[in-house]
Design brief:
SH3 type barrels; disordered C terminus; 3 helices; 85 residues; 6-stranded antiparallel beta sheet; 6 strands
């Protein structure tokens, strides 16, 4: 089960998320190169002072600044539902 959209900078540490939207332009290109695309599952590893969010995609850790994190829409994924599938 997927919840309603929320900006990445507001997510809880340790949560499993699915990417719903990424920004247009240069930021989009950089995120795509890192494998952060619409529909990708990520985990929030850490929320640092100043708003930086550290995410994990497979075994890769990516730090995303608060300005960019505000433009990325994600949704929480219910892990119990995912385990049943």
């Amino acid at each position: 089960m997927i919840t309603s959209p929320i900006p990445l900078h507001q997510v809880r540490k340790g949560s499993l998320l699915v990417v719903l939207e990424i920004p247009e332009g240069r930021s989009r290109s950089q995120l795509i190169r890192l494998g952060v695309v619409k529909g990708e599952f990520i985990r929030c590893l850490e929320r640092l002072p100043g708003g930086t969010v550290v995410i994990q995609k497979h075994r890769q850790e990516i730090a995303i600044g608060v300005t960019l994190a505000r433009t990325i829409l994600v949704a929480y994924v219910n892990t119990q539902e995912q385990a049943k599938a």
